[in-house]
């Protein structure tokens, strides 16, 4: 469940990290339920249908960037992510929460936003990638012209990071 970062925005679907991780891994099969522009509220409204349709063992939740860019209250983000985590667990799935970061010009809100993923993960006992785009640093070569969405060459780094985090989830 994700937004444009997982929906391969500006790329062909097969160039995105989800498709690359799926092709690379013999252990995990990925179903991409990501939509560009998605918010945590949108993910919350769709997750039950996706869980029923796919019946996953693991749910990767990469949502919240669009909430943050709109300055939505962090309590609302936390409630939506918590609800999706609970729904995933109720369906028998483990959860990997993917943390996101906002540009520094968001000030204290950006700090609290990024920290919220850690707090949610700790409180609800999920796997966590603290900052999804960390492997890319701030080098412009890794980003499209909007300086938000990774280019095709960056996608394997993101796929590898997610696969490593999935391998760290407790065995079931």
Describe the structure.
The protein is mainly alpha-helical. Helix content is 44%, strand content 7%. The chain has helices at residues 17-24, 40-54, 65-69, 74-90, 108-124, 155-168, and strands spanning 58-61, 94-98, 127-129. The chain has a three-stranded parallel beta sheet, with helices on both faces. Helix 5 links the parallel strand 2 and strand 3.
Summed up, what is this model?
The chain is mainly α and 172 residues long. Helices cover 44% and strands 7% of the residues.
> Which regions contain 5 or more consecutive residues with pLDDT less than 50?
none
Largest sheet: 3 strands, parallel
Strand order of the largest sheet: 1-2-3
Sketch the topology as an H/E string, one letter per element.
HHEHHEHEH
Form type: globular
User: What is the SS-derived class?
Assistant: mainly alpha
The count of helical stretches stands at 6
Mean pLDDT comes to 97
Q: Beta-sheet strand percentage?
A: 5-15%
Share of helical residues: 40-55%
Radius of gyration from CA coordinates:
15 Å
Assembly state (oligomeric) = single chain
Span between N and C termini? Answer: 21 Å
Instruction: List how many beta strands DSSP finds.
Output: 3
Please render the helix and strand layout as text.
Blueprint: H1 17-24, H2 40-54, E1 58-61, H3 65-69, H4 74-90, E2 94-98, H5 108-124, E3 127-129, H6 155-168
Parallel strand pairs: 1-2, 2-3
């Amino acid at each position: 469940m994700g937004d444009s970062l997982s929906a391969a925005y500006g790329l062909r679907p097969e160039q995105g990290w989800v498709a690359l991780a799926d092709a690379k891994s013999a252990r995990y099969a990925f179903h991409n339920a990501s939509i560009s522009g998605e918010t945590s509220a949108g993910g919350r409204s769709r997750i039950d249908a996706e869980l029923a349709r796919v019946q996953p063992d693991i749910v990767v939740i990469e949502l919240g960037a669009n909430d943050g860019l709109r300055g939505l209250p962090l309590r609302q983000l936390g409630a939506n992510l918590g609800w999706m985590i609970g729904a995933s667990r109720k369906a028998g799935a483990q959860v990997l929460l993917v943390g996101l970061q906002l540009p520094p010009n968001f000030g204290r809100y950006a700090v609290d936003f990024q920290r919220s993923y850690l707090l949610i993960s700790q409180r609800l006992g999920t796997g966590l990638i603290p900052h999804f785009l960390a492997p890319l640093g701030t080098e412009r070569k890794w980003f499209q012209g909007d300086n938000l969405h990774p280019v095709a060459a960056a996608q394997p780094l993101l796929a590898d990071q997610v696969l490593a985090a999935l391998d760290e989830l407790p065995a079931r």
